[in-house]
Amino acid sequence: MDAYDTADSDEHPLLSRLIKVGLFLLAQGIAVMLVAFLALLVSFGASWSATTEQASLLQPGEARSGSLLLKEDGATLEAIRLGTDVDITVSGPTLRARVTQAFRNPSKDWVEATYVYPLAAGGAVDTLKMVVGDRVIIGDIKERQQARVIYEEARRAGQKAALTEQERPNIFTNSVANIGPGETVLVQIEYQEPVHQVGSEYSLRLPLVVGPRYNPAPIIQSVDFRKDGSGWGAAASDPVPDRERISPSVLDPARNAPVNPTSITVRLQAGFALGEVKSHHHNVRTESPDTTTRVITLADSVAPADRDFELTWKPAAEKAPSVGLFREHIGDADYLLAIVTPPSAEQAMQKPLPREVVFVIDNSGSMGGTSIVQAKASLLYALGRLQPNDRFNVIRFDDTMDVLFPAAVPADAAHVREATSFVGALQARGGTEMVPAMRAALTDRLGESNMVRQVVFLTDGAIGNEQQLFDTITTMRGRSRVFMVGIGSAPNTYLMTRAAELGRGAFTHIGSVEQVEERMRGLFAKLENPAVTGLTATFSEAKADVTPAIIPDVYRDEPLVLAARLDKLAGLLEIKGRVGDRQWSVTLPLQNAAEGKGLSKLWARRKIADAEVARTLREMTSEDADKAILALALDHQIVTRLTSLVAVDKTPSRPEGAPLKLSELPINLPAGWDFDKVFGERPHPTPTQLRERHADARNQPATRRPIAAAPDAIRLPKTATSAELKMVAGFILIVLAVILFVFNRRQTLLTDAV
Amino acid sequence: MAARAFFLTVIAETMPRLISPLVLALIGLILFGDGAYIHAKAWLAQVLLERAFDRSVATGVAVKPWSWADTWPVARIEVRRIGASTIVLEGASGQALAFGPGHIQHTADAGERGIAVYAAHRDTHFRFLRNVAIGDIIDVTRRDGRHFRYRADSSAVVRFDASGIDATARDFELVLATCWPFDAVTSGPERYILHATLIGADG
User: Fold this and answer.
1) A289: number of Cβ within 10 Å
2) A309 in a domain, yes or no?
3) Which region ranges are annotated with the description Disordered (chain A) (predicted)?
4) How far apart are CA A60 and CA A679, in angstroms?
5) Number of folded domains in chain B?
6) Is residue A474 domain-resident?
7) d(CA A741, CA A747)
8) Which end of chain B is more exposed for a tag (fewer CB within 10 A), N or C?
9) Cβ separation of A714 and B98 shorter than 8 Å?
10) A291-343: per-residue pLDDT in tens?
11) How many Å apart are CA A312 and CA A551, to the nearest integer?
């Protein structure tokens, strides 16, 4: 009954057995081959299925190693080199800065370069020039979209073009298209800015680097419910819609030499005999052609663009002039700039009101390094200055937040000691979720109206969602006043000034530990002394458009700065206000005004800021504000959120068919920042260092470099599943199994039958 | 007893012959089931997404299709002529694509200036792309309930890393992308892209 036995009894036993074994082996072989084939396909699939998420989740760390790899490969992919020269002329109350950026292309390709750089927040950028060889092309002001279109068209047509766009009032982007191999293109922008004055000290601040910003993720859980309480709401949209545009790649100072060398020259014509002139963060050489003029240059001729340049000067006389009046005639209008410092002697006599002070300290990763030291020193100084009848509280935040006391507590020794040890233990790490901290600080739990409520906010302002913070201050400020203390080598001055303006407070900068005491003393003078309130300005004869429209309170040592557009320069300007409980007024005859420069631009810039503030305060609709801003910007040739400068060299330079590469220039980490604290602990979707951009799709290169970190053309994800392959293979195997089973069974039956 | 012994003998004799077909059948079933599971998941997810999307539009709040989902519906794409409709998810990670077409990050939203790129598997959610002809109207409804109408105007086959899609495009554009060729069973580097331009908006 055995199959083998029966087979043995068969006529060709050997042949039959061989067939069986052969068939069995064949079936097994097919199965093995199928599995092997499958495995092969899967492994192939993995190797060519690069998906977008790999590209978008690229960490700066990986980007760096990527660029290093490129160099090791000996590939000729070299970044555009940039040198910057800044030439500033200070004439009395204003300054004019000319920033020249030289884009040098050391590579063998045609390149488009983009560079993100900061400017002073109050500056009015009004001129763009592009120098190609011996030709100078002057830029025109255009609506932003229109300018972009003009630029893109020129880029595609192979013409040299430059575009200056505003990302924030203090962050700008320059794009330069079609820089030829070995070529250098100069891009020059000019801006007008008022000189800053505190007490008898005048200053200018030239930001040179954009500190990496913390851009809060769009959280879908954050829902804005409608105010009518209907329960309906809308999920808040991305708090930083333009995060890509303000996040250039940042070089780790530990691994890269500083880039973007900058030379600075300041021609200081103060208009009065000068006393001390001091650069706070750079070594400088100072020449004195006469008593009212200084020429300041960097001692090392160039410095890396990794910190703000800050210059202060004082008059030789004990006290600065308390009044300055300047005029400029442009078109059919006269522009006036008035700078008046209210008297302060009597203020000091008054007994300060008891205060409730909420200190907020930013201990996020961007504050790592020297910034947190400065912030802690400043806060400890402030705690020491509190009076026993004051009340206070301390809030610290990164992407989490702690409020030290449930409500403000009396500033007695025990509480101050507790706060001191709390502050002393702070470490800088994590993200920068500033809005919840501001909310907590503005929440007025005591509600005691006989106390002055002040919020002192210490931060570097390294966030991308400024507008959210402004909205928070606007809606929650109540009777609180917000005082901003900008910390570090490259604070976000736009955030500081606007937040202080909306919070009806003041701001100060602390760029080094040495500045802590002096600057905090100045801030406390403002906190402890009553402000000059109820200020009004009236012109006796001229019809005037004055900015700021509603004059803010002026704190101690601060000047009142007014800009106005007049129909005629005649009559008097009278400024009235209250100092404590006394009336104060000053009358200025307009005829005495001295000739000033660029005052119309300053007036327009200030009007634009007013419109932005009115928009934040909901006093103006977005549309109305945009319309006003656009009209002012086009009238006065100023770069704004809505307008850009564009310059196109009509002579085509890039030969048709030659590809164009995009080079996004990396920036330095601001001095004193800790790279790992900023980038080590959180994912940060930084665009990678080098990006290629092709002039037209026809010129796709046949072979691509192994590391195309994030080509501008969008990478498409893998969009085939293995479902069908699996189902087909599975089906084949099942069919095989059935065949084999039937075959075996037939064999058995046959043999049984025999 | 004799019958039992007979059966045992038969089983003992036939076992070695049964094992190989059984193993083959088992592997076959697992593979087939795995493949079918992908389709089942794609289909079921769309049902849940459809529901989540309708609630999103009604409430204006992003609703997750299931509690542990790491993505959420952002838009509905419809091609009325061929009766195709599908819900798009935020992000185009492999996990998200298993459930529905993905909106590729860092591209514009539908209806915004720029280029909106959606990608999906050719054998599930974007199988219908092969039937979309140039000139067809593609309707996109966003999560906020706004509705945009695009017209397909070109198609191309490109490599995944050289899509030629310009992220800085300034027009109102839409691209639907999937793997190419449609009938292949293995994944390759080629992608089919269908380009469309905004022709109208309402709501």
Assistant:
1) 10
2) no
3) 680-710
4) 7
5) 1
6) yes
7) 10
8) N
9) no
10) 889 999 998 888 888 888 999 999 987 776 788 899 999 888 899 999 988 87
11) 26
